[in-house]
Amino acid sequence: MSRIDIPTLETERLRLLAPDESHLPAWADEFFGDADVARYISKRPLTPLQRAERALRVARATWEARGIGGWVIGDKAGNAFLGAINIEPWDDTEELEIGYGLVPAAWGMGYATEAVQAAVAYAFDVAGVARLSARVVAANTASSKVLVKLGFAVMDERPLENGGTLLIYRLERAAFNIDVLPNTVRPAT
Fold first, then answer.
1. Which residues 6+ apart lie within 8 Å of 169 measured at CB?
2. Distance (Å, rounded) from C-alpha 114 to C-alpha 15?
3. Is 36 exposed, middle or buried (0-12, 13-18, 19+ CB in 10 A)?
4. Residue-wise pLDDT tens for the chain (189 aa)?
5. In what order do the strands lie in the sheet with 165-172?
6. Neighbours of 95 (CB within 10 A)
7. N vs C: which end of the chain shows fewer Cβ within 10 Å?
8. Quick check: helix, strand or coil at residue 141?
9. Pairing, β 131-137 against β 96-102
10. Helix (H) or strand (E) segment spanning residue 146
11. Residue 85 β-bridge partners
12. Can you name the residues that pair with 75 across neighbouring β-strands?
């Protein structure tokens, strides 16, 4: 595999950064180790640290293979770990899926919308992606609101083993309007 430089994206309040080993403790403890976060993400028989290590490997491998992948989300003020966002193949298909999550301390501040907008803009405008999908547990209404605000629409619903519902969202490049929000994506300086 060749080495790829993962771009840093900046919004008004955030930096989307290349993930590295320095992010693993916060990724494991504050994200994968938090019960409130865990209820909305895929269940895997791994420890929080193993999940963080897997997320790092997948983010890097997707960048290598596709020229797009994952970032960690940091605040511009001090680069505190706020969460992660990734664009990766959907279950071994050619379709790409966007996934994201924040640590609970960052909930309710508009960071998810800002980060997803930046990643989607990069995917469409720089990486040349034609369509993105997202899967959201229906009970996670905050995540659904983020997607709808950015132009994603529900294309399918699937039952979950626990009795809940999984919503499948899609967004075509032609339907994405970066100007819908005031936070423009800028290359990091």
1. 133, 134, 135, 136, 144, 147, 152, 153, 154, 155
2. 10
3. exposed
4. 346 789 999 999 999 999 999 999 999 999 888 888 877 776 667 889 999 999 999 899 889 988 899 999 999 987 789 999 999 888 767 789 999 999 999 999 999 999 999 999 999 999 999 999 999 999 999 999 999 999 999 999 999 888 889 999 999 998 886 665 444 454 444
5. 153-159, 165-172, 131-137, 96-102, 81-89, 70-75, 14-17, 9-10, 186-187
6. 14
7. C
8. helix
9. parallel
10. helix 141-149
11. 71, 100
12. 14
The amino acid sitting at 162 is N
Place of tokens 């994206």: 9
Beta-bridge partners for 156: 168
Q: Round to the nearest angstrom and report the end-to-end CA distance of the chain.
A: 28
Residue 61 has which token pair?
A: 């491998």
Among candidates 89, 87, 107, 90, which has minimal Cα distance to 98? 87
Query: Which domains, and CATH codes, for the chain?
Result: 9-130 (3.40.630.30)
Please give the torsion angle defined by the CA atoms of residues 158, 44, 169 and 187, in that order, rounded to the nearest 10 degrees: 180
